Amino acid sequence: RKEVEQDPGPFNVPEGATVAFNCTYSNSASQSFFWYRQDCRKEPKLLMSVYSSGNEDGRFTAQLNRASQYISLLIRDSKLSDSATYLCVVNIPLTGGGNKLTFGTGTQLKVEL
Amino acid sequence: DTAVSQTPKYLVTQMGNDKSIKCEQNLGHDTMYWYKQDSKKFLKIMFSYNNKELIINETVPNRFSPKSPDKAHLNLHINSLELGDSAVYFCASSQGRGVPNTEAFFGQGTRLTVV
């Protein structure tokens, strides 16, 4: 089983739609969670951290369910500029220092007119 | 001022050659990483250093050798390059242990093509 699993998509949605991405992780020692965004031929960049109580940043809402080891990202009112690959990232602290950031395979989103 | 910079951005080389990619971060972070992103776009961790010490060494051919002269630099040397090494290599850095929700910052990537 992969450490972090995502549906690769692509998700093709019309502008203005609401779209949800899901992610599961296998290591229960995982301590922090993120969604990253990667545009074509660019480096990944942090979209938002995911907190236990759930958190919102504008049109984006992230949820975490530790019991089910499940993370989600909801995008409301999709814009053309939201087209990108969304990467679920799980951070496992290592004994002796450092962190291991493990990425999912990413979910591709295409927002169309 | 670029936070994580890696050079070169593009590298085209012949099979069998040896090449290096350099990475520097000016964020004062303790942890640095090398990731490989293949043609299927999967970002796979290769190595990680924390304060110049190797802490993650995933299943990577020993033709790949990382080197961290100080905590702001993490270079990657690749010997006897093979066609399958063609990929985008990303350097990243983050704060070390004890920092919750530590974000990783990525360099722009090095697109390696082996011909």
Please explain how this structure is put together:
The complex is a heterodimer of chains A (113) and B (115). With 113 residues, chain A is an all-beta fold. In chain A, the strands form two sheets. In chain A, strands 2, 4, 5, 9, 10 and 11 form a six-stranded mixed β-sheet that branches. A five-stranded antiparallel β-sheet of chain A has the order 1-3-8-7-6, with no helix packed on it. The model of chain A has no long low-confidence stretch (mean pLDDT 92). The N and C termini of chain B lie far apart (34 Å). With 115 residues, chain B is mainly β. In chain B, the strands form two sheets. In chain B, strands 2, 4, 5, 6, 9, 10 and 11 form a seven-stranded mixed β-sheet that branches. In chain B, strands 1-3-8-7 form a four-stranded antiparallel β-sheet, with no helix packed on it. At the A-B interface, strand 5, strand 9 and strand 10 of A face strand 4, strand 5, strand 6 and strand 9 of B.
Shape of chain B: globular
Mean pLDDT of chain A: 92
Give the SSE order of chain B as H and E letters.
EEEEEEEEEEE
Question: How far apart are the first and last residues' alpha carbons of chain A, in Å?
Answer: 37 Å
As a percent range, the share of helical residues of chain A equals under 10%
Task: Characterize the main sheet of chain A.
Answer: 6 strands, mixed
Low-confidence stretches of chain A: none
Determine the oligomeric state from the structure: heterodimer
Class computed from helices, strands and strand pairing of chain B: mainly beta
Counted by DSSP, the helix tally of chain B is 0
β-strand number of chain B: 11
* N-to-C SSE string of chain A, H for helix and E for strand: EEEEEEEEEEE
Report low-confidence residues of chain B grouped into runs of 5 or more: none
Q: Averaged pLDDT of chain B, please?
A: 91
Percent in strands of chain B:
over 45%
